[in-house]
Amino acid sequence: MQTTPAQSGPEHAYPTHWEADVVLRDGGTAHLRPITPDDAQRLVSFYEQVSDESKYYRFFAPYPRLSDRDVHRFTHHDYVDRVGLAATVGGEFIATVRYDRIDGRGMPASEPADEAEVAFLVQDAHQGRGVASALLEHIAAVARERAIRRFSAEVLPANTKMIKVFTDAGYTQKRSFEDGVVRLELDLEPTDRSLAVQRAREQRAEARSVQRLLAPGSVAVIGTGRAPGGMGRAVLRNLLAGGFTGQLHAVNHAFPEDVTRLDPEGVPAHRSVLGIDGPVDLAVVAVPAAQVPSVVAECGEHGVQGLVVLSAGYGESGADGRERQRELVRQARSYGMRIIGPNAFGLINTAAGVRLNASLSPELPAAGRIGLFSQSGAIGIALLSGLHRRAAGLVGISTFVSAGNRADVSGNDFLQYWHDDPDTDLVLMYLESIGTPRKFTRLARRTAARKPVVVVKGARHGGAAPTGHAVPTTRIPDATVSDLLRQAGVIRVDTVTELADTGLLLASQPLPAGPRVAILGNSESLALLTYDACLTDGLRPQPPYDLTTAARPADFRRALAGVLADEECDAVVVTAIPWVGDASAADLARALREAVAASPAAKPVTVVHLEIPGLAEALAEPAGEDAGGAEGPAAPAPAVRIPAYPAAERAVRALAEAARYARWRRQAAEPGRVPEYEDIDEAGAAADIGVLLEAHGAGLAPPPEGPRAVTLSAPDTQRLLARYGIAVLPALPAPDPDGAVRAARRLGFPVALKPTAPHLRHRADLGGVRLDLGGETELRRAYAELTELLGKPEETRLVVQSMAPRGVDTVVRAAIDPAAGAVLSFGLAGAPSLLLGDTAHRLVPVTDRDAAEQIRSIRTAPLLFGWRGTTPVDTRALEELLLRVSRLVDDHPEVVGADLEPVIVAPRGVHVLGATIRLAPAPARTDLGPRSLPAV
Asked: In the beta sheet, which residues pair with residue 657?
């Protein structure tokens, strides 16, 4: 491939939105940006570091240096027909990619030519890091933006690495061999496979970036005080006390020059991280915010892989702090480093080969299989101490992070890591903000299919992210967020206490096979409280089995063994109160554990006890420890352990969450499908939408301030819905009584008369609707009544509509949230949804299973299924309507809002009486674009 002369053409403004930070295959980061004329020297320096072999692969001939003409060509672009992107680390190029638009003869061209020739060059030291794959994703997105639909590339057969970059990308492609060169053609339209490849690469890279933070071979604590006290010295001592297996270094620019060791810790001391011989994988930064930039620069120059920034004074401190926080992230990423924090509490990994306590927690928690993420240091401390106090011996922590302002590394990154971490079986998360709900729910759904994800979200009702969290805002209410999380399989709880309660059960017990619960114990009253709690939380309790207050531990053992063997029981709650006698808490614990250990059935068992000191600890004792008591000689504790709770409601709530999650997991194994309907005219709808947007002056691209929605007229709305097989019951305007009569005759009696003015629509409480008007006289009388009650015809905008069969009035809505995506909502019309908020929400696209669950999940759902002897309505037709609306907004992102109200669900069929559609230029789908880190 020989170079060709640069083509002249108009220059366009520098496309800032093409800049992005990406995580590479090894977990490091790189900054991608367009190449500019100012990059001439960087390009020359980059080229000098490329091997002769790589140069030969790029130019098909020996090409030892770039001429001035080459440098000019490769740095001057019009950003339309000629585009170059560079991957940089530390401000220097490590790889480049460019495309040149060509015509059918392979000559330079402009639009409407839709093909471009693409070529890469990657510095040898950075090959194998996935740089070219990331560049291909981004240059392909740029090309699509510039109306280029195909890439062509010529590659020497020996350049197998570059051939693999193209063939593994997942795009539809053609491959041929001519004149000793492999010619590849790639269709740039994203495919299911290209999206799957992109997301798999994203998962591996982001998981690797977290793994580098969690398992460093060496750690430098920067800001270690010369005297005891202070955050830096505390973290250093915590690392030592935890038994960190790697190398430790204390760094403080104020250390005297002759000090090489910090005592009494005995750790090597340095005035700068640059003075450390050998690599530093992780730096814990505990210096004032004003000193952090110089520290980050030194870390970057030394090749540090990641930072834990404990320092405060960033986003939580106001506008200046937010700018410092953005600059901190930009600076760290420019060196390929990732950041936990700032204002973080720290990072913990209890793995035997690491034992990392790079946090302010004075103790390394007990090792276990719970991954814990907290955006709050205070909540993180509370969770760690609470789990240790309640669950010593029962459960432990695999990894913990308190991310502070989470300016870079977030819960999404840790979900990527925990997804396939063999040492983590359960994920607990305290979140105060969800920056990208669409991505979070996608990642959570995938992880929840393997292991439980339990989330408690703070700031639920504040409507804004906490100070310091630079995340996109979302307009959707907390109830909607909760529904979307549950759709993704996330266990959403309301309090930190419930987070710990649910975590204890899930970490120590098998999942229940169903909702049937056996209750046994020595207190009838406590058993009844447990029974009521089960009913409240949607479980199906069996009648309590009262052992009476005279029950001994052996009686508990026999009763528990019996219910565990019962095929009609899915879970067991044991209730216990203090008894009269010499049996100890250890005796009861051993009896219960022996019964569970002897049972071949894997069923969850929990214990609710009131004022029995030592019982919880005895139930959690590690296997083999002395569990002797008053009833007999010492015996080793069985391997099984049982969680204990001080209140029936807490145990049952945890059990109910486990049962709901188990049900979701069973269903996720056989996911629903998005049905195809032969009568849907997707192409016709797309054409209509384009015409309507042009007619309303909305154009084809959203304005910089965001898309402006256009509300369609009733005829346009009905025509668009009809393309998707959704019929709206005809309604004709009635400007006066005579017009109403003419409309009724056209539609056929009986009819309804109702106002359509915005302030009167869906206001049945005002008495503004007249139904079953069987003739002209009734219609004229009703017209006079409504105009007297509601106002003049021009104020009320009365219409005459055909009568629908009697049924249940419902409402179906779809709306676009910029962060969460398209959300489909369903509820009963009127007070249930408006006053009580009884509405169910699902992310689009909705499957047949989603639709069926959605209509059954509202509290007023019994009204659809024959409540109190009423005739059940056609829920199958209702599900189909939900699926059709979901298809409409999924197929056409220009549909930013759809309201169908009321929708009458009759015993046979559904009838849409009113509909509103809003259109806007399609918003950008960041989840379908090239992978990148959130912008700062």
From this structure: none
